[in-house]
Design a protein that fits this description.
Its EC number is 1.8.1.9. One of its GO terms (molecular function) is thioredoxin-disulfide reductase (NADPH) activity. By secondary structure, this protein is of the alpha/beta class. It has four domains: 34 residues; 234 residues, FAD/NAD(P)-binding domain, CATH 3.50.50; 116 residues, FAD/NAD(P)-binding domain (3-Layer(bba) Sandwich), CATH 3.50.50; 104 residues, Enolase-like, domain 1 (2-Layer Sandwich), CATH 3.30.390. Helix content is 32%, strand content 21%. The protein has 15 helices and 21 strands. The longest helix has 25 residues. The structure holds flavin-adenine dinucleotide and NADPH dihydro-nicotinamide-adenine-dinucleotide phosphate. NADPH dihydro-nicotinamide-adenine-dinucleotide phosphate binds next to helix 9 and strand 17.
């Protein structure tokens, strides 16, 4: 027993260092009683497992835990290849390690900086010099992420799920090969069903000389030992704007290189409001531009040249860091999908039916590897749980990808649920929708002398279908916290009358949604002249 405990401690320490190695619990038990390792028991179908999950991120872990809880013998494979910059991390996937979680914490750090200056107006007195220490923040974030890695590892063990810190690729229909790149260890396991939940990684362009050698991505920014300094951010969507937002908020000179529109796919009135707010609060924008090259200079600084795609004009400047946030590619290349007949599109995303079944009927896929589905953690996790329930035969429910709320965590957050105004017009016709809108004044703004120019809400009513609310959009502080409840109501089919009858909670921002009484069609001024409480 003593030996067993010592072995577990060794495993724990490795986990905290992010260098998890698979150790089968039966091997630990055998060590304790000096017995030879027990041969794994086959399933009733003659496989090693009922369900093997390739990719231990948001979707894979949720699916594996659900499957195991419903009695399926389950294994999870998770392997992280270092980024070109050399960053690597532990169990939990993109969200936990290099996505939602660190992003939200850096966003919070930036918000706190803004609130420090608000605090003075609220009577707090402290030294005029306020500085931010990147290392302290990074260390706090890293420690928190390590605790999440550990919790995931322990929860797999508690659920009796076998975990392999190895890269998986298909060998034949029911066999995956597991490889540990650092130790060279290779083994195979068999399963009745498989889940492809390998997610994606940021794309670095091959046509921008110097980008691959010198630039970083969202895989690196949250783990940089040294502060990024003056930063050039390429891209105009979620990742680019969120990173540029918190970098500006933390005091770094930040430029966004935006080749077309901000936040493609989102309501463009709202997207432009978000970008405009950022521009007015210190983020620089090079609009209509793409980078041409990144060169490292003798002093270590990066000389970036960029070109305006309309005028052909070129510009250059030196930066401490260059961050590419131009989208992500699915990690399907090394899975040997041809061996099992799983079809992908030209970009390597997996094609599935409406039950997330691939072209090989016993192989499923979810999350960021799917074609044209929201790339969001709660979507991947719910899809994974539903797949597991269907396989275990406890439910036939399919994932419903409609009315998924999301938030862009820019300095002023933008939350949305349902259709953008442009899309609502396209689908239903302008005559069949009513857009209700309003600027609003958060009650906390006036004392802090903050402008409410960008605090705006709109929702879209479908006049042709029971006056249902088919889109809602909110820019403002804590927009994400506000939208979740309205998304639940929209899921229940809330119509305009029900929203109007809802009594607000005063004084909140959320109450502004239920108070809106101006339509765009009326032409009445939606600005806040009458905002008085
Ligand atoms: P992942 O979480 O990416 O997990 C896949 C795992 O599989 C990874 O660990 C990978 O290393 C591993 N793997 C890959 N290939 C193999 C293989 N062959 N063998 C074994 N393992 C393999 N979503 C939100 O909802 N809210 C947010 O605020 C948010 N912020 C984000 C911020 C950033 C910067 C980024 C990049 C993403 C953000 N997302 C956010 C998106 C969210 O992180 C993803 O949608 C989610 O992680 C997708 O889950 P997944 O299970 O599909 O894949
Ligand atoms: P996206 O694919 O959403 O956006 C890519 C951006 O990069 C676009 O603005 C695009 O411009 C631009 N771009 C593409 N190629 C180039 C190029 N060669 N040169 C210059 N610009 C280029 O990628 P993201 O990485 O921002 O996000 C990936 C996904 O991650 C999102 O779809 C989202 O689901 C998820 N995510 C979610 C978050 C959240 O929930 N808060 C936060 C972050 C990510 P153009 O429009 O012109 O094509």
């Amino acid at each position: 027993m003593h030996v067993c405990l010592v072995s577990l401690k060794v495993v724990s320490r490795n986990l905290l260092c992010g260098s998890t190695r698979y150790v089968h619990l039966s091997a630990l038990r055998a060590t304790s009683s000096n017995m030879p390792p027990v041969e794994p028991v086959k399933t009733k179908d003659g496989y090693d497992y009922d369900f093997v999950v390739i990719g231990g991120g948001s979707g894979g872990l949720a699916s594996a835990k659900e499957a195991a809880s419903l009695g399926l013998k389950t294994a999870v494979l998770n392997y992280v290849a270092p980024s070109p910059f050399g960053t690597t991390w532990g169990l939990g996937g993109t969200c936990v390690n290099v996505g939602c979680i660190p992003k939200k914490l850096y966003h919070q750090a930036a918000i706190l900086g803004e609130e420090l200056s608000d605090a003075r107006k609220y009577g707090w007195e402290f030294s005029e010099t306020v500085t931010h220490n990147w290392s302290t923040l990074r260390q706090g974030v890293t420690n928190y992420i390590k605790s999440l890695n550990w919790i995931h590892r322990v929860s797999l063990r508690n659920a009796k799920i076998d975990y392999f810190n190895m890269e998986g690729s298909f060998e034949d229909s029911h066999t995956v090969k597991l490889t540990n790149a650092s130790s060279g260890e290779v083994k195979t396991i068999t399963s009745k069903w498989f889940l492809i939940s390998v997610g994606g990684r940021p794309t670095i362009p091959d046509d921008v000389p110097g980008a691959r050698e010198h630039a970083i991505t969202s895989d690196d920014i949250f783990h940089l030992k040294n502060a990024p300094g003056k930063t050039f951010v390429v891209g105009g969507s979620y990742v680019a704007l969120e990173c540029a937002g918190f970098l500006t908020g933390l005091g770094y000179d930040t430029t966004v290189c935006l080749r077309s529109i901000p936040l493609r796919g989102f309501d463009q009135q709202m997207a432009n409001m978000v970008a405009d707010y950022m521009e007015k609060h210190g983020t620089k924008f090079q609009k209509g531009c793409v980078p041409s090259s990144v060169e490292k200079q003798e002093d270590g600084k990066l000389l970036v040249t960029w070109r305006n795609t309309q005028t052909g004009e070129t510009n250059s400047d030196t930066f401490d860091s260059v961050l590419f946030a131009i989208g992500r590619h699915a990690l399907t290349k090394n899975l040997n999908l041809d061996a099992v007949g799983v079809k992908t599109d030209a970009k390597g995303k997996v094609i599935t039916d409406d039950e997330e079944r691939t072209s090989a009927s016993h192989i499923f896929a979810l999350g960021d590897v799917l074609v044209d589905k929201p790339e969001l953690t709660p979507v991947a996790a719910r899809t994974g749980r539903l797949i597991a329930r269907r396989l275990a035969g406890t439910s036939t429910e399919k994932m419903n990808y409609d009315l998924v709320a999301t938030t862009v965590f820019t300095p002023l957050e933008y939350a949305s649920c349902g259709l953008p105004e442009e899309e609502a017009i396209k689908r239903h016709g302008e005559a069949n929708i009513e857009v209700w809108h309003s600027f609003y004044k958060p009650h906390t703004f006036p004392i802090a002398e903050k402008s409410n120019e960008h605090c705006y809400i709109k929702y879209i009513e479908d006049l042709s279908n029971g006056n249902k609310i088919i889109g809602m959009h909110l820019v403002g502080p804590m927009a994400g916290e506000i939208m979740q409840g309205f998304a639940a109501a929209m899921k229940c089919g809330m119509n305009r009358k029900q929203l109007e009858e809802t009594v607000g909670i005063h004084p909140t921002i959320a109450e502004e949604v239920v108070k809106i009484d101006v339509t765009k069609r009326s032409g009445v001024d939606p600005t806040c002249a009458k905002c008085c409480g």
